[in-house]
Amino acid sequence: MSEIYTMAGHLIRRLNQISAAIFADRMGDLGVELTPVQFAALTTIRENPGIDQASLAGTIAYDKATIGGVVDRLAAKDLILRAQSKTDRRARALTITPEGEALLDRVRPVVLALQDDILAGLDPAEKSQLLTLLTKTTAAGNTRSRAPLTQRREQV
What positions does the domain HTH marR-type occupy (predicted)? Predict the structure, then answer.
């Protein structure tokens, strides 16, 4: 057996592949075109009305250079609105639309349920332990990320 099968990086990459495949399959079953990043962005915009794109990127630990494409796709689907910030003419304040609210209400239970499928093979205690360890290690390595999780700034 190759040593790659016991390397953290390889296993994390594989688990990400599995997670993305399960998410895509479940969204496909619903007839919904939504990616995990779009789900995270839409959820965050709903929780933080008026958030700007840079803050959104930091809040979901996504690259600032590519968050614009995510926002563009959500806006094109009429799931969010972009308006000029009242305090910064260069920034765009993001808010969820009624269509976005309805979509989140529809997919959220499915996304919550598929979490167990991502961690198939683990009992509840093992799932809890893995999530605790993943939270700990991602926090420890946050500053090494090209898209670190940042504290959310004040709304614009």
Answer: 8-139
pTM, entire model: 0.91
Instruction: Tell me whether residue 152 is in a domain.
Output: no
Query: Per the domain annotation, does 153 fall within a domain?
Result: no
What's the CATH number where 123 sits?
Answer: 1.10.10.10
The structure tokens listed for 131 are 């999530």
Domain that holds residue 72: 3-139
Q: Mean pLDDT for each 10-residue chunk of the chain (156 residues)?
A: 93 97 98 98 97 95 94 98 86 95 98 97 97 96 94 48
Q: In 19-41, which positions are buried (b, 16+ CB within 10 angstroms) versus exposed (e)?
A: beebbeebbeeeeeebebbbbbb
